[in-house]
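re: the backbone from monday

yeah here it is again, tokenized this time
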């Protein structure tokens, strides 16, 4: 399989949002939890400037934030996530960042650790009040 990473077009944003939603649901969250996350997992036309595939990064100064990285469930553990993470790190470096911060789903944190990210505490969920997420940093 050849993986092609490209920028999406506006017509693809609903299907990319659905992909993020399906990928998050793999971890067995209930319907109420998933609905609370829907907005945070969605792509909007304004996101096109920061989006490639289902990776979204934001760079401010020398700091990058990995905002989204989702893989189609059938593609898990086939190198797609690693390629998307590598792209996010590369583009962040090219934009001048020296460190990338990741607020990870607890089940996804081991993936980021395998990629070389280090635990750096906890961060509040953007979807569920009171829920804390693993915070990781990756030196670029």
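seq for it, each position gets an aa:
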């Amino acid at each position: 399989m050849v993986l092609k990473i490209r920028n999406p077009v506006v017509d693809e944003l609903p299907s990319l949002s659905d992909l993020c939603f399906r990928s998050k649901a793999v971890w067995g969250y209930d319907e109420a939890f998933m609905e609370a996350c829907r907005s945070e997992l969605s792509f909007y036309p304004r996101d096109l400037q920061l989006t490639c595939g289902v990776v979204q990064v934001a760079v401010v100064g020398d700091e990058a934030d990995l905002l989204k990285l989702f893989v189609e469930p059938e593609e898990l553990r086939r190198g797609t996530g690693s390629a998307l993470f590598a792209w996010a790190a590369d583009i962040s470096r090219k934009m001048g960042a020296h460190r990338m911060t990741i607020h990870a789903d607890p089940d996804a944190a081991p993936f980021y650790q395998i990629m070389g990210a280090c635990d750096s505490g906890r961060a509040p969920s953007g979807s569920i009040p009171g829920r804390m997420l693993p915070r990781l940093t990756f030196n670029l």
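Residues 80-94 form the longest helix (15 residues). The chain has a mean pLDDT of 90.
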